[in-house]
Amino acid sequence: MESSSATSSSPSRRRDLQPNLAFRELRGQRSPGEFAAAVRRAAREIGERVSCDARYIGRVEAGEIRCPNYAYERVFLHMFPGRSLTDLGFVPRSEVRGRGRARPEAAQPPLTAEHRGSRHQGLLPHEIPHQEIPHHETENHKESDVQRRAFMTGGTATVAAASFAPLGLTRDGGAAATAAGRPVRRVGHAEANAVEEAVRKIRLLDDRHGADGLYRRAAAPLRAAYALLDAGTARQATAQRLQAGAGELAISVGWLAHDSGRFDDARSHYAEALATARMSGDAALEAHAFCNTAFLARDAGRPREAVRAAQAAQRVARNLASPRLLSLLALREAGGWAGLGDRSGCERSLSRAQALFDCGPSNADPEWMSFYGAAELEGLEAQCWSALGDWARAARHARRATALQDPHFTRNTALYTAELADDLARAGHPDEASAAGLRVLDLLNEVQSSRVLSMLAMTARVLAPHRRAPGVSTFLERHREVSHSA
């Protein structure tokens, strides 16, 4: 789960916040403590665990938490049925996706449309309570429409071009000129914001569409970000933001390479992020880099390296006050043990991951972990049992993952369903496996992921001897058509 918002306790930062008056009105005459108790009760009613207290309510009402994490979102929507997050005074999740660090600078000047990207994407002016909408915000609705049309007509590469161009971090942008020895202007707030916005956009597009088609486009913003670091800045706070942003961008681009089957490229990007983290003393970035390195090592057939990287990540993350992060890292270790065929080591790590997950979300949870909820926990456990050859158990967890997955994460829905199809096929249920495979093929209209395609290819090979079973021939034929057109 992700931290709800980047915050700062400095007085100047607080003066910039927009109070959430809509949420305050919903609290009514109850004290913050009483309202927090009501939130915890509502969470228990739907099987969630949130550590809500009066301080959290105060932060929401002060505007520090601009969008709640997924656990709180489910609780709030349960408490106030029929209302959306924007009705409760929050901003859309697409605005905060990928932003996980407090900005230490004082009041930031508003950015121009070239750098802001799609703030309040899809949000109508009347849905933002008690705020005046600047003119440049309304222009972003047009940008959102452009991106949607671009994906429908040109695929994810076109979406990437439409998304990254406004950030000033494309191949011909100002940062590229800086890299060529022609500094356009002094590196400052706008450039740091642009790097952070590039991270957000890459993650948002990956959530919806998968990595294929995005990777080549995303490499240009990454080169530009490191060019900005080389150009230097007079303010230490801005330099720290640029280092953190460049490191997170390297991980995001590495993930696009990873998910599209470019393992060597991914390894290089993750190593670059790790070096940036160590040079800047950024423990959160280092834990993230090791986390992805462990995942890559598992997928690349280096399970012992996966274990070592996951254990290194856990050592770094112990002081970050995020049980959910430690839970994910324990799952990364479990995947390594499963790859080694060490069932007892895998089970110990899975048990630790579940116990840490049950501690609930924390305000210290990194923003990049917004994908990590109950569905991902089940999906990663399914992969472990699959690696150990326990197909029936793997299928049970994969089925839970597909049922629990938030539809926002289209790529993950396709991934979990592909895992389910393969597990069912290997467990001797060809008809159910084919039905799941067909659902994945339907999702490929929106998702481009080599990893999902390779999983479907393995499933098709397992199902080939059962082509006379109900539905199998239909799946095999559709899969053949997709494979030839890919």
Automatic annotation (TrEMBL):
SUPFAM superfamilies: TPR-like
Region: Disordered, residue numbers: 1-20, 96-120
Superkingdom in the source lineage: Bacteria
Compositional bias ranges of the Low complexity kind: 1-11
InterPro entries noted in UniProt: TPR-like_helical_dom_sf (IPR011990)
Protein name: Tetratricopeptide repeat protein
Organism: Streptomyces himalayensis subsp. aureolus
Lineage: Bacteria, Bacillati, Actinomycetota, Actinomycetes, Kitasatosporales
